[in-house]
Amino acid sequence: MTGSRKILLISASHYEPRGGVARVERYWTSGLTLVHLEALTPRDFVCELVDDFRREPPLETDAELVGITAMGLQIGRAYDLADYYRARGLPVVMGGAWVSLNPEQALEHCDVVVKGEAEYAWPELLADFQRGVFRQRVYEGSRPHDLRGLPEADLDHLPLWRPELMREKVYRDYYFQFPLYVTRGCPFRCEYCCITQFHEATYRKRPIGEVMRDVDAIRSRGSRNILFMDDNPVADRRYAKELFGALAPKGMRWCSQCTIQIAEDEELLDLAAKSGCFLLSIGFETIKQSNLDGINKPWARAREYARLIRLLRHRGIQIVALIMIGLDDDDPADFDRTLEFLIRHKVPLAKFHLPIPYPGTPFYDRMEKEGRILTKDWNRYHYGSAVIQPKRMTPEMAEQKFWATYHDFFSMRSILRRFFPPAPRNLKIQMHYLTANLIFRKMQQAGKHPYLY
User: Using CA atoms, how far apart are residues 337 and 331, in angstroms rounded to an integer?
Assistant: First the structure.
């Protein structure tokens, strides 16, 4: 019988500084994990999908199994949810990068763990559940999936998509971006990053025809906006060029996280712009080469950053600079130098964070060996919390400079310098991100961190 057993699948939110659960009425994208798990689930189950960021998971449920996924800052909330359902006698399975790198820790809160990717492990776990017994506490696929023939996710079930808002031009044309995976993994070995560990040092690409099928499914829902959920979609430049060539006639707009390498190949950059790229989140991390070398990111050359930013700006591609301030070779003045660099080179948005040692990464292991981890309260592992002992300042100074840097980045002086005069292309997009800066400024003045909502 189809749908005879129910699974409750939850994507955890995170706690606000005052202790409440972060919630929003609308959000600019939606994760793919829940709908992908639903697509992998045999037809004799029915899934209820809940994004905790949008609404409270049901305190009472007729589900027979609860699955919970989380990233980074969400893990404390995820563990609390797991404890809640487990205390009510429901079996709980957890997955995601944090859980995969720390399965023993997670098993203190749940019955079973899916370690790594779900394509092979999830169906095996459900088969055992059907038999009435989990034969393992940790389910792990025998090999990484080659990404061919992945089942189609039902985009209508994306928990954070609001189809009734598609009538609003801003929501439809600028705000909501449909999520889409193109590649998995990253070939680099940056010390702080959990991606290499999670994907077992592999890098794989989806068949472009299957990607275009998903693009058409997004377009059929009235949207032209895509967020590639990849960590490094341009690691294989030949593949990326073929992908962008296939995407160009579709008339879509897309954004992604990406390495700065996209700007080192101007042919690749031109193809990206022609295919609809309008925004890239780029992990610059730091403007000091000594810091890059210290976190095993020597392939990024700090002296090239200004030139590469100009190349992106010239093509009308907006940048979200991901900046890790407070690394080992930083002193308090480096916060100010970094801020001035971003303003001078007219970077539209930046996400600052103090160094966060993600458990299971080489960075965490080094910090623990050096005795520099200050807390294992996972709810403090967020952007502006000093959870390791800095080398050249106190933790209190690091946090003070962090918040001062954010404040100054969203000052009116900074906003005006960064957006005027505007770049020669994509003026409407630039004005959209100017508006975003003003909104973030208002949020900050109200005491809210712009990137925790």
Answer: 10
Contact present, 35 and 158 (Cβ < 8 Å): yes
Return the SS3 of 273: helix
Residue 207 is assigned to a structural domain of this protein: yes
One-letter amino acid of 253: R
* 156: in domain: no
Domain that holds residue 238: 162-452
Report how far residue 66's alpha carbon sits from residue 76's, in angstroms, rounded to the nearest whole number: 17
Residues 6+ apart with CB under 8 A from 39: 150, 151, 152, 153, 154
- The residues, any chain, with a CB within 8 Å of residue 210's CB and separated by 6 or more, are 148, 149, 150
Is 304 within 8 Å of 265 (Cβ atoms)? no
154 within a domain of the structure (yes/no) = no
Per-residue pLDDT of the chain (453 residues; tens, 9 = 90+): 455 899 999 999 999 888 899 999 999 999 999 999 999 999 999 999 999 999 999 999 999 999 999 999 999 999 999 999 999 999 999 999 999 999 999 999 999 999 999 999 999 999 999 999 999 999 999 999 999 999 999 999 999 999 999 999 999 998 999 999 999 999 999 999 999 889 988 999 999 999 999 999 999 999 999 999 999 999 999 999 999 999 999 999 999 999 999 999 999 999 999 999 999 999 999 999 999 999 999 999 999 999 999 999 999 999 999 999 999 999 999 999 999 999 999 999 999 999 999 999 999 999 999 999 999 999 999 889 999 999 999 999 999 999 999 999 999 999 999 999 999 899 999 999 999 999 999 988 888 776 665
Q: For residues 287 and 105, what is the distance between their CA atoms, to the nearest angstrom?
A: 35
Among the listed residues 198, 157, 162, the one whose alpha carbon sits nearest the alpha carbon of residue 177: 162
Q: What is the CATH number of the domain that holds 407?
A: 3.20.20.70
Model pTM score = 0.96
- Answer yes or no: do 13 and 96 share one domain: yes
